[in-house]
Amino acid sequence: MKGAPKICLKVHSTARNAAFSTSAQPPGSIVATISSLATCLLPSEKAKRCDVCHVLQSDAVKLKRCSGCASFWYCGTTCQTHAWKSHHRKLCKGFNAFAASTEYQALTAHDQVDALLLSQMVVEPSVWRTEYLDSPYATFMDLMKGPRADAFDLPLYLPKGASAVESRALAQELHARFGNNNFVLHSHLTSYAHGVFPLASRLFNHSCVPNAACKYIIEPEKPVTMQVVALRDIGIDEEITIPYLDPALPYRIRREALEANYGFTCECSLCRFQRKIDPVSSPPERGGEGDTEALQELDLALRTFTLGANTQPLNIPVVPGMFETTPPPLYPVFHESYLPALSEVFSKTSHEGSYADAVESGLTLLALYALVYPPNYPQIGMHALELSKTLWNLICTAGSDIPAKEEEVLEAQTRRFLDIAASVLESFGPEGDDGGPLGEIQALREALGEPSR
Predict the structure, then answer these.
(1) What is the Cα–Cα distance from 440 to 94, expressed in whole angstroms?
(2) pLDDT tens, 109-148?
(3) Is the peptide bond before 354 cis (omega within 30 degrees of 0)?
């Protein structure tokens, strides 16, 4: 872990250990910067990114293909040399045959990544026999095995001369810890790779109401690093938690995933609340020629409860746990069908129109995000930015047909959503690929005639 430590590991009442803050940390603070032990791109990202540093190909970055296997790409000799020394010299020659095998092709895209990650990690068995307790290899082996530790069924690529017995035994030991300590890397909330960060797995417990979240820093010719960012004020001796999955997932799906993959039942305030009200009634069906009056009333009640009445300035909750005060008539918004249907409507209308319908469904979706996610959660900021762009599209497509006063109102709404997006995403800080949402915020501000910030 880089920099002065802001956390310490203590005994936890239910988990093995927990990371606690050693100082007061405001929102946006970098709690920890953690190096990766191994990473691997999703198949959809191959030939688009460097296989080592993950930088995107661009006018300034031209990727070069490995001349041996022609299946890995590098931004330059530094990354190619790093990969060759760490694992690729032993994987290169037979990789294509392995990738074309029936066993490998039968895997899902994410399992294919895990099979490659595991193959990379067993290629040098000697590194796992280290006696240095502070090495990432020792940290990884100190992790607890997952609940499905014996379910090792991934195909494994073994280089020529490798001991099949030794490699399979090592792979089984690694996979026992690997399956529940594997992170999905993302750039601007879009998944692009898997990675192993042993220290992060060792330090941070899960919560569906976390006070921190992970982001990934991509720099040319450097392995990807994870940064854990404070979402709100974290006090001295307060446990620091991160989400292992999306807190907006339906309660039962979260519960089953955490039990199956990690072997525990979450006792955070969101899970306790949703367990108490479970099962919830299903909401009226969304879609078709027009939503029912009952669904429109439910959407309006959600927006009013979370964001305030239409006659008041729109405000995002700044204190976590607002869901605990949700009135019973709003419980159907926690049903497993409500969020997917609402997201689908917003996605379709924001791209295809009508933009007026997109604004209404997008505002309802923002209200749901603000209810479920903790303050400053990056998805809130990203969605507020999408709402800003949708409003701007509405203004631009209306042209001269829109009355001047109505245009002023829409521009004011656009600025308000931009302010929300900027507040969240600037606190979260730069991450992933160059540009992205922070650049889009600035571009839209300039389109609205605002000075550069």
Answers:
(1) 43
(2) 988 999 999 999 998 888 888 766 678 899 999 888 887 6
(3) yes
